[in-house]
From TrEMBL:
The keyword DNA-binding does not apply. Its EC number is 2.5.1.-. The lineage of its organism: Bacteria, Pseudomonadati, Pseudomonadota, Alphaproteobacteria, Sphingomonadales. PANTHER family: BIFUNCTIONAL LYCOPENE CYCLASE/PHYTOENE SYNTHASE. This is Phytoene/squalene synthase family protein. Keywords: Transferase.
Length: 348
């Protein structure tokens, strides 16, 4: 008799221990998101922290980091790292212990909220792109990458907040929020990414500005880089405005927390634009006082609601999902004979 593997949501660890360690992870890895998450009700906050812990751990494994900081990229090991992330994730979703708190945390929150393997694989596929040394050629490529590493996370966060599967529009807006966050992050981190040998500016954008590959941080191109950063932030603002519409479908404290995070991350992108050529001489951030102001502004908006944008973003969750699926590996479909009734025209 074959012994069945042990299965228990969270890998058998206590929920309290996983929640505590997840809270420590977000406090260390993202002060902006940690501040906004305090506004959630207790149940939502714990689940958001559990999901964040997995996202942070995956990012750290893929880039050889510890809660952010300098990247340690070894392309020879990149593929193996991503495969390790995928294997541990699938084990966690199957209720098996992983020997890693962050993955066990994912298993717990997935069981509680109905997160699926497909949702997780969408995120992991973004790490796979980085491991391949991938670069975006077009704006569509850029947005597909942003979907993987942030838009898909936004969808998972909406699921964690209890958004019903039937509310597809709310999931669309959650994806918009993730896209906005990532676009602002890319604008802010151009210098850090360049130091690690990465560039998320589409090749076509660089060609339009007559910037040679790998030279965008050179002093003679700083004014042109500012133009491209504005373009990134403009895209982010379009998705940010759309995301605010989705917040109205959340419960009040969830709405307040989401809008606070929206304000804080949006401010980072706008600071990059304001600081122009100096934006990449240091890491742009918001102060505690500024964060408080954004939280208070979000409180007002949570009560009064947001104005619909004059124009919705060009890139939609549906289109980006299709691009992601089309760019991925073919599904492992087992071929079975199909009945041909109603397929072939029957002979008289």
């Amino acid at each position: 008799m074959v012994k069945q593997p042990y299965r228990s949501a969270g890998g058998g660890r206590s929920r309290a221990a996983l929640v505590r360690r997840a809270g420590e992870s977000i406090a260390l890895g993202s002060k902006s998101f940690a501040s906004a998450s305090l506004l959630f009700d207790k149940a939502t906050r714990e689940r958001v922290h559990l999901l964040y812990a997995w996202c942070r751990r995956c990012d750290d494994i893929a880039d050889g980091q510890d809660h952010g900081g300098p990247l340690s990229i070894d392309e020879k090991q990149g593929h193996d790292r991503v495969e390790a992330i995928r294997i541990l994730t699938h084990r966690a979703l199957d209720g098996q212990p992983t020997s890693d708190l962050a993955f066990d945390a994912l298993g717990l929150v997935a069981a509680e909220c109905g997160l699926t393997q497909a949702m997780c694989d969408d995120v992991i596929d973004g790490f796979a792109l980085d491991a391949e040394g991938w670069r975006p050629r077009t704006e569509a490529d850029l947005m597909r990458y942003c979907y993987h590493v942030a838009g898909a996370v936004g969808v998972m966060m909406a699921k964690v907040m209890g958004v019903p599967d039937s509310e597809s529009d709310t999931f669309d807006r959650a994806c918009d929020l993730g896209l906005a966050f990532q676009l602002s992050n890319i604008a802010r981190d151009l210098s850090e990414d360049d130091a690690a040998g990465r560039c998320y500016l589409p090749v076509e954008w660089l060609v339009e500005m007559d910037i040679p590959p790998g030279q965008h941080l050179k002093p003679m191109y700083r004014d042109k880089l500012v133009t491209l950063a504005r373009r990134l932030v403009h895209l982010a603002e379009q998705h940010e405005a759309a995301a605010r519409l989705g917040a109205r479908h959340l419960r009040f404290r969830q709405r307040w927390a989401v809008l606070s995070a929206t304000n804080i991350y949006g401010a980072i992108g706008r600071k990059v634009v304001e600081q122009a050529e100096l934006a990449w001489d240091h890491r742009v951030h918001t102060t505690k006082l500024e964060k408080l102001g954004h939280v208070l502004s979000a409180l007002r908006e949570a009560r009064l609601g947001a104005w619909p944008p004059s124009e919705m973003p060009r890139w939609t969750r549906g289109e980006l999902m299709v691009r992601a699926r089309m760019a991925g590996k073919p599904a492992d479909v087992k071929y079975t004979p199909l009945r041909d009734e109603d397929v072939r025209k029957k002979e008289d």
